[in-house]
Fold these 2 entries.
Entry 1:
Amino acid sequence: MDTALSPELSAFRDEVRSFIAANLPDDLRRAARRTPSVFHDPDVSLPWQRILNARGWAAPDWPVEFGGPGWDAVQRYIFISECVAADAPHLAPMGLKMVAPVLMHYGTPQQQAYYLPRILSGEDYWCQGFSEPGSGSDLASLRLRADRDGSDYVLNGSKIWTTHAHFANRMFCLVRTSAEGKPQAGISFLLIDMDTPGIRISPIHTLAGDHELNQVFFDDVRVPQANRLGAENDGWSVAKHLLAFERGGVYAPALVARLREVERACPEDPVLRQKIARQAVSLEALQAIELKALRKEGPTAMYPSILKVLGTEASQAIDVLACDILGTPGWRAREADLPDDIAVTVPRYLNNRAASIYAGSNEIQRDIIAKMMLG
Ligand SMILES: Cc1cc2nc3c(=O)[nH]c(=O)nc-3n(C[C@H](O)[C@H](O)[C@H](O)COP(=O)(O)OP(=O)(O)OC[C@H]3O[C@@H](n4cnc5c(N)ncnc54)[C@H](O)[C@@H]3O)c2cc1C
């Protein structure tokens, strides 16, 4: 992007770059590089979030009135590019990028005043309670019951694949408040305190050996009706609004940085070098689409699905390239210079198989794109 930057944007990039250089501690940088998942544990992400928050930069996408820095789309892109180039920890998206925008859109002034500052400061750590056993792609079939009792709902059922539920003190959750009419019409969106009696968290270990995921059980869990976001039985609209933020986003800067690491470790093998060059060209195309999406040019409604498919599939292609390098004869001789990124190649490959499943599987995203294009 450097060649396209105006003097003002170059100055902005330099300001961000020097802030990161001066404030990102080496131990956090190293821990981030050695994390095989896109989800960095809170002992890595929260210290960095606090440093950014003190500078007013923890939530680049938020409007100024809620504590955002007031940057335009290109500034946000530059900021993300500089963070990933410096191996900064990834901030947990569930609070900052998922529940925050729906709080801004659907929340009461009281809910906004209470939750948003706690998200920015990292005091609240959120998890997402959408999927259930039997309700993933067909999310509207969810069954976790929320029955009215006085001023509360009483919840019974379970959620599954709940990323970082074991760290979170809050969950945003879709529950069934009515069995009448279409399944989508009987869902409500609740904000739940994870310390509420009756909530039990059971770990699920992934293929890569990580503990990121959980099943969460609810046995007669009382949640005040005041903790509902949006109207009763209108939770599906809230969820759809949120999913547009969960998908989409910005993939290319991190992938460009990863591909550079892979290239650095690559032996003089013409076939591998050609594959890396092809991938670099695809990333240029992805970057161009991301910038169009940020500027709201072109088919805006389709971008969340388009970028989710292209970004996650490019990241898996880079995993395969990194594994190919590990398998090159004679490569072990170079192990002494192993970049951190390559050292976690196999765990990352295994962990990242999930990228084309979570946030709505890529098959479902292709269905959404096809429906929008074909009507
Ligand atoms: C690492 C990871 C983290 C996750 N984190 C969370 C979280 O924090 N919170 C949360 O709520 N959920 C989370 N999920 C759940 C995720 O959203 C679901 O796994 C996803 O929506 C797919 O649902 P499913 O697993 O039930 O698969 P299914 O819906 O059973 O799908 C199985 C397969 O069938 C395909 N398929 C299904 N329907 C169709 C169709 N109509 N057309 C074409 N193909 C179809 C799918 O693409 C998939 O390949 C996470 C999942 C993973 C893997």
Entry 2:
Amino acid sequence: MGGTCIVLNTSVSGRHSLAVPRQRPRGDGASGSPMRLAIIGIGYLGLTHAVCMADLGHEVIGLDADAAKVASAAGGVAPFFEPGLEPLLQKNLDAGRLTFTTSYAEAGAFADVHFLCVGTPQAPDGSADVSHVHAAADALAPHLAGPCLVVGKSTVPVGTARNLLARIQAAAPAGQQVEVAWNPEFLREGTAIRDSLSPDRLVFGVTSEQSTELLRQVYAAPLADGTPGLVMDLETAELVKVSANAFLATKVSFINAMAEVCEKVGADVVRLAEALACDERIGGRYLAPGLGFGGGCLPKDIRAFSSAATGLGIESVAELLSTVEAINLNRRSRVVELAREAVGGTLAGTRVAVLGLAFKPGSDDVRDSPSLHVCGLLSREAAVVTVHDPVAMKNAARLQPDLRYADSVSEAAADADVVLHLTEWPDYRVIDPVMLGAVVAQRNMIDARCALDDELWRSAGWSFRGLGRPRN
Ligand SMILES: NC(=O)c1ccc[n+]([C@@H]2O[C@H](COP(=O)([O-])OP(=O)(O)OC[C@H]3O[C@@H](n4cnc5c(N)ncnc54)[C@H](O)[C@@H]3O)[C@@H](O)[C@H]2O)c1
């Protein structure tokens, strides 16, 4: 591929008119030429990808090492919460386009294109642990049958794809023609279906025209709908994902650094962000001040990128990302500081109500959840913490069983000395401060997501503090 980047349709540059005519209507699976796809790893990314690919009309087999996950998905139950996923899962199971297995032999014999969607968790030294990617490739390679393409979707350090190509070619049956491509995924939990079916862009890291052609067939529908398809080398494709996450994390931390400044000088970061967002060079997305980022991707991905940059001797990138992370973590301790101030200096024995545990609304994911981190800090200071979340309580209870779990907002807030708003679920925006004021011991609200109407709360007699916002 050299260093070139080809655009697969005219919507980006108009240089290459390779748009694919729509082969079949979405989800009918009847006309056109559906492909046979295997999706290895059916976690948040893989199950969503499997369901969406089946909905585009492809025949899909989903594989996971976790037999319970496979049984759950095969029975139409998603092992995690994602809006819209279960009905689409059931629809495609019913249509016979989607099956699940734990057998690599079955997946190897079935598919022409194999997507690797296994996890890349953080290793103890902060780098990305790619052992699951290696294990999946090692298990799949001996079962590959007929010319096929293995496509990585997991987020990996640059260089992983090229190593994997050598690894798979060495382990595949003699004479087996196999190629590796990288097609990083940009879906966001909470909007994963829409992001998968109508992505902002499709990135294809390839080593040959055949790989490009196969990926173009897999994604014929979104490409025909005008999604830009960008073809590039393996290394650049890997870097697109990690640099996108690094940029987004930096943008979040930038506005949160401005929140720190606002707190010192009595300015309002919400008004500041609104004004910055009007500048089209800046834009408003990922510019919401608050408790910062968390979840299964951004934190681990920036640590992994930082570690990789250090390995490459590029200290400036490592320093930039460690500052981004430090700003992010500061917001969590700042919330605890505000809670301490609200209750008069010490949290020991005070009752704290926490609203929201998921790392973001629309998800039950509590991996690296800022809210759970804050709960841990409060517990460490011997506060009595009662929590509520619409969907994430089960996952949270596995990580922090000692918190008190309440079935409703009022139950969580009963007799509380301070209430912390930590995940901006829509339901929390419409809480009636008068109603909640009647159940708490003291009317102290700390809005760590800058999402509540401060005037409304103050007029109902609450002492209201928002991160990065003036005292009153
Ligand atoms: N979750 C997201 O929003 C998202 C978005 C974009 C990219 N990613 C990336 O996608 C990858 C997967 O993330 P996730 O959130 O889906 O993780 P996850 O932990 O939810 O899922 C990973 C799945 O892989 C399975 N697995 C692990 N080793 C396996 C093996 N050898 N064979 C078969 N199955 C195996 C696990 O059982 C698990 O079900 C990561 O690299 C992540 O950074 C995630």
